Amino acid sequence: MKFSYLIAASLMAATAPAALAAPAVPAAQAANPLLAPWTGPYGGVPAFDKVQVSLFKPALEAAMAENLREIDAIANNPAPPTFDNTFVPLEQAGRTLGRVYTYYGIWSSNLSSPEFQKVEQEMSPKLSAFQDKIIQNEKLFRRIDAIYNSPDKAKLTPEQQRLVWVYWNNFTQHGAKLNAADKAALSQVNQQLAGLYTTFAQNELYDEEHDALILDNEAQLAGLSPAQVAAAAQEAERRGMKGKWVFANTRSAMEPFLVNATDRSLRQKAFEIWTSRGDHPGAHDNNPIVTKILQLRAQKAKLLGYPTYAHWHLADTMAKTPDKALDLMMAAWKPAVAQVHKDVAEMQAIVDKEGGNFKIAPWDYRYYAEKLRKAKYDLDMSEVKPYLQLDHVREAMFWAAGQLYGFTFTKVEGLPVFNPDVTVYEVKGRDGQHVGLWYFDPYARPGKNSGAWMNEYRTQSNFDGAIPTIVSNNANFVKAAPGEPVTISFDDAETMFHEFGHALHGLNSAVHYPTLAGTNVARDYVEFPSQINEHFMTTPQVMKFLVNAKGEPMPQALVDKIKAAQHFNQAFSVVEAQASAIVDMKMHLMGDKPVEPHGFEKTTLAELGMPSEIVMRHRIPQFGHVFAGEGYAAGYYGYLWAEVLDQDAYQAFVEAGNPFDPATAKRFHDDILSVGNTVDPAVAFRNFRGRDPSVDAWLKDKGFPVPTATGATNE
Fold it and tell me: How far is Cα 69 from Cα 693, in angstroms, rounded to an integer?
């Protein structure tokens, strides 16, 4: 979990140079190691070995107090406001808090113990109130506003002008122009929301840790691979249930079970466990929390002068308006649903031929999709998995990054880590110079959020000395039995390339000011660099790295089958994701009308014509993207928006005749990855592609009809 770049200005620079001298904290807190500048090699590294949960509250309180003193010094400067006496110190402020919050975010996402959760419940509203104190500092905003409106702004560099706009826009978007009464009301709303976001996330985590599919009969394992069975036995032993098999309530465990298990009743049980997270009456029920969050967000939007929360949240994105986002989602929805109906008909034919006296249900979809894949393309994805060893996929990612951007990755020993499973790699550029560090945390554990993500521990910048970045990738793979390689699914391998794409965005950053660096870009643009990185996984050059335990490469016949089946089941992925995205948007267009999650989900999906064989990828009570924070609220469409960008942009590599074409890769680096938010994203894309994006490449990639100039479609 990270603060959005859209909030408090001082926190935008929070992960800036940790190794530089920071203003002294009060003597009473000086002994708290979370407050200390990072020391050691590579510009300083996080002191994970010194973190204790009991240190978080005093560290956060001391760092917030220090940051407010820094802000007051800027705001009360008697000199006329200039870029150098306002924006430069703003970029330097908040470094102590940034270090503390790096630790805090890591513990929240990866080591969320009951002890930590108590701290998080207490501190979340306080952190929100702190952010509002900065946004609502009238003297500070007057300085920002004066510089933004000054004719002298034209004398600044383009990057400095962009920085001025980002600050001014963030402050105005978050209430800097409100009157005193409305500011107070907004702060109260934000504090309530912060507490609810924390509770939502903790409830979801509770269900993931306390619910599981437990099997005690070997016959129930029919259809599962030996690796799945071994991992389930290992999980059972970890939980003190030796002799049984436990499938954890995580996507990495449940989805493969739904693909392979032959026992239909067990598939249903697994499916219901997975899709009911956060949806159990009682202390951990997220439904009333969702209703309250939506009510408070509607109040927030009204205070800020917008008709709905969706209008407010999209105002400074690429889409700009909910209508534009919905138009794109519906353009994807209609052909995807049509294709799903065709696929389901073929799957139902298999059921009927086998004598199954049932209609395909959501817990059957993945199982029969695999049967259909085998029937149509002679492709069994279980044959692919042995070639997708985790270590080999990682090395393939490194190789591709080296070809594209000149990076080398060398494992570093001896640095502090927050869990023994974490490994650290030094990243160097073509010139052999240090670029940054990459931390890799691949395995599921108690207290860790499900899914996969990227974090930035320290943001790249050059304005106050060259500061190298530190990034991480986190996943939830199931450990193999001792001595056995960890093999992952094809989808999980693509997810690794996706999240590594976020890391590469941070590692390629070459900007002056940390607020504009790396992934600090518009929400519906940030997934673009990560999604384009997925394409390189299936290139012939990378596939050569994917060898089995004997060191044998994937047979060309199997590679050819994967290529032939590239459009298969794409419609399923589009429908389950866009169902979530459309429901997300429509919820946030409700204004102050109360939303009951169950009824809203059911009614909205019925209006859309949701195929009965599929459910939303993220049902409302477990939709952490949207309700565990604000980053993707009314913004889940951003994955689709960015995918249109990435499919179009990748065509530049295709047109060059080589997915690793050096000239194209250099242009992608120069125009997209290195510039961060120093350039408007629409302009950055235009600089790379020479035009605005087209949806045609996305439609073609999914196997959907592409409209022609006459309005007809080409299959």
Answer: 45
